[in-house]
Amino acid sequence: MKFNVSNPSTGCQKVIEIEDERKLREFYDKRMNQEVLGDVLGEEFKGYIFKISGGNDKQGFPMKQGIMTPKRVRLLLRKGASCYRQRRKGERKRKSVRGCIVSSDIQVLNLVIVKKGEGELPGLTDDNVPRRLGPKRATRIRKLFSLEKADKAEKQYRVKREVAKEGKKPTIKMPKIQRLVTPQRIQRKRAAKAFKIANAEKTRTEQAAYEKLKAQRAKEAKQKRAEQASKRRSQNSATKSSRVSFFRPRGAPPQLGAFYMPPEHAFAPPQPVVVLPR
User: Is the Cβ–Cβ distance between 173 and 160 less than 8 Å?
Assistant: First the structure.
């Protein structure tokens, strides 16, 4: 098994290959982010403490944090997940990854020096590789140079580097500071807050006006319905008072009903019957 050892304090990195199974057995069943004593690797690593940061198996599949198995699994990954880089917007893909538990199938194991031991390790602690790019965020610049927030000297401590191109005058490049609180940023934040408050007040005013208009329209519609109903009732009462109904005598056509007007002779007294001689 190969061990890819890195030293963050010096920026150095070195690959160490160990074939002794007794030494490798100490790393088996360990998980990512667990610390291991360096004494198990040999006398030159006495006093060192390493942290397991990851690794790859014999087929090149990476270890993924949070997968509690020493085997390989297939996961549906999306943007923001480790071991996957999105190619298209909204894309998800099923990828093979190794679990976060170290086993004999691991080919390369990544270790980070957490604590330095007694002796020096050639290629790791005896050399210093300068950082090509300095910190860009304002808080990290203050942390690196031990600055106070009240100093407001982040721009003076930017890490500069010289870029020389063939046939051209060398130029100096420096990062643009991110998340730097300036008077302009404070003013813009205040303006955005005032806009949000004014917009909310405008929405409340328009809502109140709409509710008032809605109630007025409902009241007008109710009054209109009441006027129509009273007008309809008055018309019906007038029609009923002017209508004359009569009793339908025997022999009257049934389809006329109460509106049948009997002839005048219907109310005449009966005439005496005259019997003529033969």
Answer: yes
